[in-house]
């Protein structure tokens, strides 16, 4: 017998855990609201002007662009003149960036050197570093002008209430959002206790000011705005960085146009297209699915050519043919439990997914035949026309049809009145419609293949 399940908790169990966490956090937020702590940023034209002056004073260069508030009230970068492809737009020296490499010279260093989580999880350390620099009272942070222009709130799933998150049910983003919420709650609880029991400089700063509200803000800041730059100590390794000015660009599909110039120790952003004066200037954030954008950045991009829907498949260890299947999967560098992607466009089923499904559905004789073949011949399993036995091939495509149908049935019925939904529920609705479009396109593709194979 074969299985498509992993040993991780079911979605139903994860949802039950989430509801318990929400209940606890509700009580914590009520208690912490009495601290009367103010938002850590005030994003407005005055603070943006101070950010620009601070950045330029410290070596940043803006060429033909400026930060501007557009009609939808979101800040972005506006062209101040006509821009050609490849024009250098923004240059930001390393000295302006916030990275884990700044921690040794900060109040966080002592705790960082003692605490395992901070040492082993650089992004968690960077989130705490953001709070230390935002809340320190001994002196104004070097990054004060940057930190005070960050968004006051975000649309990442740690800001979703129960109904908002429930609107994502069926989507692979739902499980990712549940996991994110669990991790942030667990980290918050860990640090809340740590700061109360410690007397190092960072704990003194955060003992009476560290709240769940502040922590989810810091984590969302990092998730939605970080880039990577080469490490100062080891240029072959990258570190996460917050890059002032660069992170004011909004996203659109295109090509990567940001580079780190090691010789001059600066991050340079180039124009990825032509822009007329007063146009909003965009950059490409990288190859990500909309589920990734939603969970980590808090938006979805409908024209995302790199969008995909995740499908998880696995061979059960209780399968009598597990070892033979596993050996053949290894020949193609495929694991026994894997996540594949169904993509939009004319060829939604890629070679790796096809190979996995074929191996998953083989009987003992077919498996033995393939495991004895040369490695390069096994690559035929990844081809659309893999010259397999017609009966097996039909079985594989029928299997895909069933799996895709099951994925589609997991989604809730579409909302009748989308305009009445909350902002976050509308985001979830858009995400789900985009995923359903991908799955329905893939289902049609599979049906067409089956029709051809089953023709008399």
UniProtKB/TrEMBL annotation:
Enzyme class per UniProt: transferase
Location in or out of the cell: Cytoplasm
Keyword Ligase annotated: no
First-listed, main subcellular location of the protein, grouped into a coarse class: cytoplasm
Example of a GO biological process term: methylation
Record's catalysed reaction(s): L-histidyl-[protein] + S-adenosyl-L-methionine = N(tele)-methyl-L-histidyl-[protein] + S-adenosyl-L-homocysteine + H(+)
EC number(s) stated in the UniProt entry for this protein: 2.1.1.85
Pfam families for the chain: Rubis-subs-bind
Residue span, SET domain: 63-286
Keyword line: Actin-binding, Cytoplasm, Methyltransferase, S-adenosyl-L-methionine, Transferase
A cellular-component GO term for this protein: cytoplasm
InterPro entries: Rubisco_LSMT_subst-bd, Rubisco_LSMT_subst-bd_sf, SET_dom, SET_dom_sf, SETD3, SETD3_SET, SETD3_SETD6_MTase
GO molecular function list: actin binding; protein-L-histidine N-tele-methyltransferase activity; protein-lysine N-methyltransferase activity
Highest taxon above the source species: Eukaryota
Family that this chain belongs to: Belongs to the class V-like SAM-binding methyltransferase superfamily. SETD3 actin-histidine methyltransferase family.
Protein name (Swiss-Prot/TrEMBL): protein-histidine N-methyltransferase
Gene source species: Schizaphis graminum
Gene responsible for this protein: SETD3
């Amino acid at each position: 017998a074969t299985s498509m399940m992993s040993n991780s908790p079911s979605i139903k169990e994860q949802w039950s855990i989430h509801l318990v966490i929400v209940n606890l956090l509700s009580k914590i937020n009520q208690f912490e609201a009495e601290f009367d702590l103010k938002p850590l940023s005030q994003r407005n034209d005055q603070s943006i002007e101070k950010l620009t002056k601070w950045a330029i004073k410290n070596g940043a260069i803006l060429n033909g662009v400026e930060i501007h508030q557009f009609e939808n009230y979101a800040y972005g970068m506006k062209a101040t003149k006509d821009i050609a492809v490849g024009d250098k737009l923004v240059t930001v020296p390393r000295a302006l960036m916030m990275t884990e490499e700044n921690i040794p010279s900060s109040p966080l260093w002592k705790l960082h050197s003692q605490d395992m989580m901070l040492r082993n999880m650089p992004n968690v350390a960077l989130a705490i570093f953001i709070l230390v620099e935002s809340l320190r009272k001994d002196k104004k942070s070097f990054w004060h002008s940057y930190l005070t222009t960050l968004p006051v709130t975000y649309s990442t799933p740690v800001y979703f209430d129960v109904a908002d998150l429930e609107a994502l049910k069926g989507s692979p983003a739902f499980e990712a959002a549940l996991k994110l919420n669990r991790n942030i709650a667990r980290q918050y609880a860990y640090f809340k206790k740590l700061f109360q029991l410690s007397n190092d400089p960072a704990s003194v700063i955060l003992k009476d000011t560290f709240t769940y509200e502040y922590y989810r803000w810091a984590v969302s800041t990092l998730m939605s705005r970080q880039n990577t730059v080469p490490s100062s100590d080891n240029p072959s390794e990258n570190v996460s960085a917050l890059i002032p000015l660069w992170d004011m660009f909004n996203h659109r599909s295109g090509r990567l146009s940001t580079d780190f110039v090691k010789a001059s120790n600066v991050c340079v952003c180039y124009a990825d297209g032509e822009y007329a004066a007063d146009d909003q200037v965009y950059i490409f954030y990288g190859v990500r699915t909309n589920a990734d954008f939603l969970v980590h950045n808090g938006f979805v991009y409908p024209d995302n050519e790199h969008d995909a829907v995740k499908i998880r498949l696995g061979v059960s260890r209780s399968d009598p043919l597990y070892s033979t299947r596993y050996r053949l999967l290894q020949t193609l560098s495929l694991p026994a439990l894997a996540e594949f992607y169904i993509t939009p466009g004319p060829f939604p089923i890629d070679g790796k997914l096809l190979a996995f499904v074929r191996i998953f559905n083989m009987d003992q004789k077919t498996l033995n035949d393939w495991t004895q073949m040369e490695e390069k011949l096994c690559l035929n399993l990844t081809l659309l026309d893999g010259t397999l036995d017609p009966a097996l091939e039909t079985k594989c495509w029928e299997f895909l049809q069933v799996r895709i149908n099951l994925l589609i049935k997991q989604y809730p019925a579409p909302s009748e009145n989308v305009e009445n939904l909350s902002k976050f529920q509308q985001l979830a609705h858009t995400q789900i419609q985009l995923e359903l479009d991908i799955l329905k396109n893939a289902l049609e593709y599979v049906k067409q293949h089956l029709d051809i194979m089953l023709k008399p």
